[in-house]
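Q: For a teaching session next week I want to show students how multiple molecules come together into a single three-dimensional assembly. I've collected the sequence lines for a complex. Could you give me the predicted structure tokens for the whole thing so I can convert them for display?
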Amino acid sequence: MIRSLCNISGGDYIDNFTFYSPTCFVFGKDTESQCGSLIRRFGGSKVLVHYGGGSVVRSGLLDRVKKSLEEEEIPYFLLGGVKPNPRSGLVYEGISLCRKEGIDFILAVGGGSVIDSSKAIAAGTVYDGDFWDFYSGKRIEKALPVGTILTISAAGSEGSPDSVITLEDGMLKRGASGDAIRPKFSILNPALTQTLPPHQTAAGITDIMAHLYERYLTNTKEVEVTDRLIEALLLTMIHEGPRVIANPDNYEARANIMWAGMMAHNNSCGVGRSQDWNSHNIEHELSALYDCAHGAGLAVTMPAVFSYVMEHDVMRFAQAAVRVWGCQMDFAHPEVTAKAGIEALRNFLISIGMPRNFEELGAREEDIPELVHMLCRSGGRDGSISGFVTLDEKDCEKIYRLMV
Amino acid sequence: MIRSLCNISGGDYIDNFTFYSPTCFVFGKDTESQCGSLIRRFGGSKVLVHYGGGSVVRSGLLDRVKKSLEEEEIPYFLLGGVKPNPRSGLVYEGISLCRKEGIDFILAVGGGSVIDSSKAIAAGTVYDGDFWDFYSGKRIEKALPVGTILTISAAGSEGSPDSVITLEDGMLKRGASGDAIRPKFSILNPALTQTLPPHQTAAGITDIMAHLYERYLTNTKEVEVTDRLIEALLLTMIHEGPRVIANPDNYEARANIMWAGMMAHNNSCGVGRSQDWNSHNIEHELSALYDCAHGAGLAVTMPAVFSYVMEHDVMRFAQAAVRVWGCQMDFAHPEVTAKAGIEALRNFLISIGMPRNFEELGAREEDIPELVHMLCRSGGRDGSISGFVTLDEKDCEKIYRLMV
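A: Of course. Below is the structure for the complete assembly, covering every listed component.
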């Protein structure tokens, strides 16, 4: 669904591509105090500060943001209330506010949901039609500038040209894309993520790993450099994930995860190769229907999808098993190694507190027909989804049943 | 000497940093035909086309560039003649030409030398003083926009804020830096590198590996993500290097090396950590004095420097040996493993055709006192160079003698 990244129609060998990631990343302790001057540098003069719930307020982060804006004498309006799996309703509200007040810069203070909602407002404000057009296939060409202050390492939206929004009418979760919504700057302070509950930290880790696997599962041949970069970031997550779960205050582990999360999704390790995104598509129906954390949904989805499609390219899964999970290669039976890698992923995700099946996720077996229908028949799809392999309704049903 | 990358005064643990790499990379076959429209997109209206010797002319590349500019009706001036280890004389000539003709965009067509010369012209044209001020420590804040068409994977200048120039008066080779000289766009067509002689290809591979090692040798603790990214790119070079030496027409191997070369030096894998750059500093005196290929000089320099400083952090060299070179860890004697990794690097570089010592490089033992003096006493240095470890004149002399 992340269309810009999904060059699944590419050739067998490395494709031509353009990589353009002009976001200015300001990384480290106390960097949120620079938001006012960064907004000035990137041309903002009247700002919408967009955020989620109480934690940004309770932690004092919002006050520090206000102080920085006031020091630069930048007028601002506040719009809180973004929920996980951000909704279209608040986007419409934000667009109205921006137009009414002549706002020229959006500052997102939060995680992927807040940033994605901000990007939708940024694109919608300067567009004559309904912003949902962009989430129905139209490419975003123009938007207000967006800056971010990231509070969770997960979605990678701080460095990506993508946004995912849920349409409240029908709970349809869809993505939009365009260089115009890449953040002008992103402030990454790992310390801001130290107060996250363990479940959210773990869901973020899972989301980052999914962004890597979605790129790893490619049909493009001879893409050694991006294979190796993806493996490097997965190895980082495997090393640092358990360390932050054991000790949420570990600044260095938080910092490594935060940089990995950005690199995992600004596409520097996904260029020139076809990508998968079937796990994301299959998961989106779960978080749309049950409002579960996207990462938690991915933890259940990925092992099921990978087991189902493993035969399409056993050696690719064996490579991940050996290089990422440290499995011994079974040269006589590569499929044994391939499977061991998928099991290692599943066990890792369970070990950091992620759900293992529908029940733990809060999903219901009896909804599978509806999930399959929403997945394969809505938003212009004609009965299948495509990526690493093309999956029809029967395939998707079997995959959902593997999760029960 | 690459000052912007050399945060050697950093703390023990991950430092705050800013990462800003706004270059638009246009990668793949025939992409040079887009140079005219890219110059328009990035605001150029009168162009200096800067290049080196005959190969750009003979191959027809210069004609294709002219055609693209003419199709966009962009007037241009040609300035060829850039030599490896680019000289100050041509920079002064370029600055005069740009001022006289009101040129507002520099297009570099070539390798690192051409790009570095273009960056120097770009900064010098809009500066009232002598451009060499920037190569004596002054930071570049303003420059004409630069675009590049890369013809060799090596210097990484296509994605970096750096430039290295040799002052003809005294053959002093020094670097300058600043975001203002980061290219607006870089066209990376791996096919353009297929006609390089094997020695140049190998020297480029060595330069890329040196950019990675200079970042790997850090005193910053707990930098897993950048360690892993550097290792990923080294593994790519080890896999693809011998493949292009054996078959210069291997497009995929060329493509993997080209992307690795950019990623190795745009600092995405060097952020937040102290870096070394002593091997570069020690080599610069060799290529300044003997006009040898920078990469060839590095092939002789790196193993000598690493052997000399290995004891400073045996476990770091052991980590490289195990993770990059596939050595078995000797848990009782880590220094054995550390040394094996350095030997593996040396043997790899020899295997792709690089020189192993002073004699093969064309350097002379009797010049060592002069080399040491130039290295440690010129350009404001007071008798030592610093990086992973601080090296005084005695250390540097011993290191040069290890190369004999």
